[in-house]
Amino acid sequence: MASPKTLALSGLFGGILCCGLAIGIIPANRYLHLRQGLGAAGLWILFGGYTAAQRSIKEQIAIDKQIAEYEQQQKLIREATQPAMLEEAKNNAVVAAEYRQQLHNLDAGAAFAQVAHENHPAWSQQQIEAAEPELEPEPEPEHEPDEKILSLAAKKTKLLKLISEHEGGWIGQLMKKPVLIYGDQGSGKSYFAEFLALCRHYLRGHQIVSIADPHFHQNKDECWKQLVKLKVPGFGAHHDYAAVNSQIVSMFDRFSKRTLKDSPITSIFDEVTRYGQEEATQESSSKLGSKLSSDPRKARESPILIPHAKTLAALGGGEGFADAIQGNFVRIKLNSDSEQEPLWRGTISGIKDADGEPIDNLKISIAPEWIRSSWVCDLFNQPLPEVPVEPIEPQKSPVAVTEPAVIESDADKLDRILHQPIADDYWLSEMSPELLDRAIEMRNTQKIQVSESPTSISEVASLDTMHTNVAHDSLTQRLVAENFPGTTEKALFDSIYEYSATCRNASKIIKDCLKCSHSKKGSPRSYKEVGKPVFIYLVRKYGEASLIAKFAEYLDKD
């Protein structure tokens, strides 16, 4: 675009030229019409140049203002996140130092045990037998511990941790408000609705009262499979819209009777797009907008609606529905490809940030394997682990029978080792190279779980008290989702692990496996802003002790 100065000079030059030709030194009685035309053209060019210059000045001022506002926003964001990033870096340095010390202690003990076993096998065997602890009978508890409650708390904690760490914890904001899940066919709307209903059921105690779906006869063994196992009734099979209408009317009736003191419930309505087109549901669908704008919260009901879009026609045709969803629904749009296969990506609107400000069109993903209804059901319905007990042979004379000993796990052994003074004979009795590798793996797995203490049962039952986590791992998970949408964290780590077998250069692995380069700052897949933090995050999260040790020098630079 030409500058204002250029436009003004061009208009001035053109106008003066035309005016000069109009008053040129030629007989006054000749070319009168030409003189008049040139004079008018000169004046028009002068006016046009001036107008274009003024318009260009205004546009440039608006652009400069937008740039200044954007730079101010970026400055505020950096100032707000800098303390958290510095604190996270400090904590990471402390954890890394502790971890290196632990690895050093483990390696030293294992090396001593191996040398002693090879050079002094008899003495080693004698020390192993002498270090075998004698089991004393445990007193019988007055009340048998409630393992079921403790186990349930641990399961809730595991799911809550995954939810809070996934892309800023947006799934945690879907536990109470009505949710509208829309998108093209095959985008995974119903599958995600079942997952959300199960999260509400197991984490918030929601009763799932009904599934209204005209295609229930086709979906009961697919997207509603896990809810059917929980005996959730389905209505509307074989396009029975009269049965669907009965569930809409039942929801309206619950709105008029239930209060905030009642237990929370969830209802599901699929194929809402057809409600305004079918005679059996036309009347009730016309009231959905006014009913759902305020009644669900007071009745402690959290409906899940599944249309194909969020337009008036797609939402059952009810007047006011499109306006009602803006402030009262969380709106999730999921995408599918041209083959009507889910992409497990989309956007979300209607949730709020830490300051209570609404967030619209936030990019999300539901690709992780735990965001599946089958995974949630397997987690909460798996049997409790049983402790193997050796059979007791009958004795001829009465003898005192002790309680069966509880077998100590490898992870518990490693934890006990790290919290007591280390003796040479203890390493001989406990450690071997295979056992050490196995114990370290178990230790890394258990670090991500919260302690199963009875006092945490009430704390993990609610997501309302969870604060927005701006930690480094959440930011890195967002980088993975945005820059590597076609794969998973585990797949990226597997490629790094395979390449590391022949290459010890972390920079080369980042360039070849993650396709990141030292390009201009702010560009997609930048080595510094994307490649390096993603590599460090994946190695620390999934890597074994040997892999972390291989890149210890590079990881310590973080």
Task: Tell me about this structure.
This protein has 558 residues and is α/β, with parallel strands linked by helices. It has helices at residues 4-22, 32-119, 121-130, 147-165, 189-204, 216-219, 225-229, 241-257, 279-285, 288-292, 295-298, 321-328, 373-381, 410-418, 424-430, 433-446, 457-460, 472-483, 489-500, 506-513, 527-542, 545-550, 552-555, and strands spanning 179-183, 207-212, 234-235, 265-270, 304-306, 330-336, 342-349, 351-352, 358-359, 362-365. It has four domains: 1-119; 122-133 and 147-166 and 409-462, no CATH class; 169-367, Rossmann fold; 471-558, no CATH class. It contains 23 helices and ten strands. The strands form two sheets. It has an eight-stranded mixed β-sheet with strand order 3-2-4-5-1-6-7-10, sandwiched between helices. α2 (32-119) crosses α3 (121-130), α18 (472-483) crosses α21 and α19 packs across α21. Mean pLDDT is 77; it is low at 141-148, 394-404, 422-429 and 449-470.
Euclidean distance between termini CA atoms: 44 Å
Task: Look at the structure and give the mean pLDDT.
Answer: 77
- Which CATH architecture of the largest domain is right? 3-Layer(aba) Sandwich
Write down the domain tally.
4
Beta content comes to 5-15%
The CATH class assignment of the largest domain is: Alpha Beta
Helix content: 40-55%
Shape designation: flat
Strand order of the largest sheet: 3-2-4-5-1-6-7-10
Main β-sheet description: 8 strands, mixed
Extended strand count: 10
Q: Unreliable stretches, pLDDT < 50, 5 or more residues?
A: 141-148, 394-404, 422-429, 449-470
Number of helices: 23
- The oligomeric status of these chains comes to single chain
Structural class category: alpha/beta
Q: Radius of gyration over alpha carbons?
A: 35 Å
CATH topology of the largest domain: Rossmann fold
Relevant CATH superfamily of the largest domain: P-loop containing nucleotide triphosphate hydrolases
